[in-house]
Amino acid sequence: MNALVPSPIVSFNQVGKTFEVAGGELEAIREFNLEIAEGEFVAIVGSSGCGKSTLLRLLIGLDTQFRGEIRVDGKAVNGIGGERGIVFQEHRLFPWLTVEENIGLGLVNEALSASERQTRIADFIELVGLTDFTRAYPHQLSGGMAQRVAIARGLVASPRILLLDEPFGALDALTRQQMQDELLAIRERARITTVLVTHDVEEAIFLADRVVVMEPRPGRIKRVVDIALPHPRQRSSFDFHQLREELLHELTSDDHYQVPLPAQIRDLPLAFIAC
């Protein structure tokens, strides 16, 4: 299935990925085609093992061994690039560094003077609402605050695309909803193209312009749904509920829904990148 948009900033063309596992091969992704417009917010949802996080690894450039082609702003992806930032489910902050020092890790490849660097860090600390916690350490922060630091680190180098891999999955329900609201506000100020991977259908509907529904074994697009609800979106509204039921039906009608991911793939190490 193709999902095409005019002048895409991101394009996947016939992308496939196969892992070597004990006893043979596992095809994780097959013939994935998707285009994402600049400034768009796209959420990818699906059961465990459908290849959602693998797609982000390919797009960020952590894994360059795949079939097909991925392009960002017309250029083929063949490694990590400064135009792409990522935030993982775990905040991955260094415990011995302060908030400003952790955010500063996102600038390690930027040619900035000391004053420019400090100004950039301060701007993004303010953006995520942590000005009073500049010199705090991770253990002094709540889970939501730590994840805001991770988002600031992902944005501080001014990437054109922000990738979010289950960024609020480790948070409690109330904090998760608060962070979803904050993410929309941050994204509006930063005006950045965003790709979110999530298991949470409500989160996808609340945040995204489009939702890509994946089916597994191998991972491929089942359906792309436009979310035409105006912001701010109300989770209790009839239209929101209808979309939720529609997407849940797409997921639960899959015979593979909630099949656990093979251990050989689930346990693959995910490299830390300070971006």
Automatic annotation (TrEMBL):
Per UniProt, residues of the ABC transporter domain are: 10-241
Q: Cite the GO molecular-function annotations of the record.
A: ATP binding; ATP hydrolysis activity
Gene3D superfamilies hit by this protein: P-loop containing nucleotide triphosphate hydrolases
Statement: the UniProt record of this protein carries the keyword Heme? no
The entry's keywords: ATP-binding, Nucleotide-binding, Transport
Keyword set includes Nucleotide-binding = yes
* Domain of life, source organism: Bacteria
User: InterPro entries, per this entry?
Assistant: AAA+_ATPase, ABC_transporter-like_ATP-bd, ABC_transporter-like_CS, ABC_transporter_ATP-bind, P-loop_NTPase
Q: Family, per the entry? A: Belongs to the ABC transporter superfamily.
Name the record gives this protein: Sulfate ester ABC transporter, ATP-binding protein AtsC
Give the organism's phylogenetic lineage.
Bacteria, Pseudomonadati, Pseudomonadota, Gammaproteobacteria, Pseudomonadales
* Gene label: atsC
